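Pipeline run #58 for the internal structure catalog. This entry was flagged by the ingest filter as a single-chain record with no existing model, so it goes straight to prediction. Upstream metadata was stripped on purpose; only the residue string is passed forward. Reviewer on rotation: M.T. Logging verbosity set to normal.
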Amino acid sequence: MKKIFYNIYKVAALSLLTIFLLVVQACGEKAKENNTIDKTRYTDTISVEAQLVEMKELDLTKTFSGSLEGVEQANIVAKIPERIIKINIKVGDYVKTGKVLIELDKAGASSQYYQAQAAFLNAQKNYERMQNLLKVGAVSQQSFDAVQTQYEVAKANFDAATSTVEITSPISGLVTALNVNIGDLANPQMPMATVANIDRMKAKFNVGESDVPSFYVGQPAKIYSEMNTELVQTGKIFQLSKSANLQSRTFEIQAMFPNTKDRWFKPGMFCSVTVDMKLKSNTVAIPLSAIVTENNKDGVFLINENKAYFKNISTGLTDGKHVEVTSGLKVGDKIVTLGTNNLKNGTVVIISNK
């Protein structure tokens, strides 16, 4: 009887041990499975599009920042420092050549108006009297000629004195600036107003010495403002500076264009000027979509062994779709062209456009 119980006990113990080992093995495999899942779950893998860097031929364009002026534009300045007593214009008025814009004090210490007026009126009376005497033969032609000369000199002096106190517009156009008020003292060194003919405008911008050879008179240019990018005017380069600015070491270029569309462009506005430069062949170029800016530096994500790494680059001219790379890349490098938003150094990537 004891032997039977011993055998039953032995079988039961072995069974329990077997069950225990099976449970331990199952738990180990489950833990291993969970560990694998966790590793997979926390591995960042991003799908991107990529391409190899290659040599391209670019029809290059470049955009420059500039400012606008009227082709005909005049700053209105005083000839003498005198008090302003009347202003006949406001900004936005259209004026014709010769219109009196601003009047100065005629009796001021700097003005010779009344003295010149008195001399002119006196010379005019003598001239008219001598005309009548000449008609009846009471004076000689020589005497009349002398009085006539005095009259003409007095008239010229009076006209000059008048022009110093009655400031007129030298051109027809729009009043684009008014910088003074009644009662101000006119300063001959400072413009009181600006008049511009804005039917035609000119865009002035500066370029570096490396770009100068790409410009020529008659070259097409497109002008627009960031405030209204849909309004683009087509003009032509009409003036190239022959020497560099001593401070900036840049050259001034001017483009002229018609100011249609209700004369929307105004003098003093900032503008952008886009110019077709030249055809450039056999240059390293990449899509603009590949450019990533980090810490104010341009770069791309290079792919190496299925991982993305940020690389700083230097860029040159662009054709609007591709950009020239002057340093940082070589032919054959593989770069990300789409899907850069979530990339970091070392991110594992899957190339979707193989």
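catalog note: Residues 6 and 161 are 141 Å apart (CA to CA).
catalog note: Helices lie at 2-41, 113-135, 141-165.
status: ready for reviewer M.T.
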